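Researcher: Re-running this chain for the archive, since the previous output was lost when a drive failed. Same request as before.
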Amino acid sequence: MESSSKYRVGLIGAGIMGEALLAALIKAGFSSSEITISDKRNDRLEELKSKYGCAVTSTEVSVPDSHNLLLVVKPQDMDALLEKVGKSISRNQRVISFAAGKKTSGIEKYLNEGVPVLRVMPNTPMSVGVGASAISKGLYATDDDVKAVEELLKASGKTIVVDESLQDAVTATSGSGPAYFFRFVEAMIAGAQDLGLNESDARTLVIQTITGAAAMLNQEGADPGVLRQNVTSPNGTTFAALQVFESGDLEGLIKRAMKAARDRSQELS
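Model: Regenerated structure tokens:
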């Protein structure tokens, strides 16, 4: 990738998602010299500097020196950050927020008029290159800005572009989704142990089963309903298990959980 201030990235926030983005940027071809990291935890900055070789600096120094500003702070910390540095951001820069529930309009009010703002809802699997992210434009962002964000995220997994009104639904689907999946895996491992398998064997079988099922879903033309039916013989073992799910209204439970996540995302805005 061309080395230029046009591509210089300032990553503000060095938590789990911040590191996932950092790893994705480097995988996408950015050199460590093109990325600066800032965070209020100096020990965390030194950890990432040692691991990735990127420069660490204060937010005040990073902001004016970066063309792309990736805001990966907690939603409740966003306003305080923007109050401190918002007016030092110019129209030649691009602000990309990864904070759940924070609307672009809420960010724009702290900035100079004309600064392009984009909102991204990522998820943690981007740390291993199989993430799912949704991008939305703010008032001043253009299609070229969207393309630039897609370029930044190209090594993180798959990206889609949605109207910002759908970002809370994205949060409830792919943003929080990995936790739903992990909780189901925990429950399956516990269930296998209740049936007599030791923990090691239970983990091996469950994780490999889930991994294999996901691989089948990624095949071209795969349909989850058809794949489920292919495993389910009439009145067989799988049928018996699925009947328990249905009697507990599994689909309704999942929909209610996702709605709760969507509603909380709206509250955070």
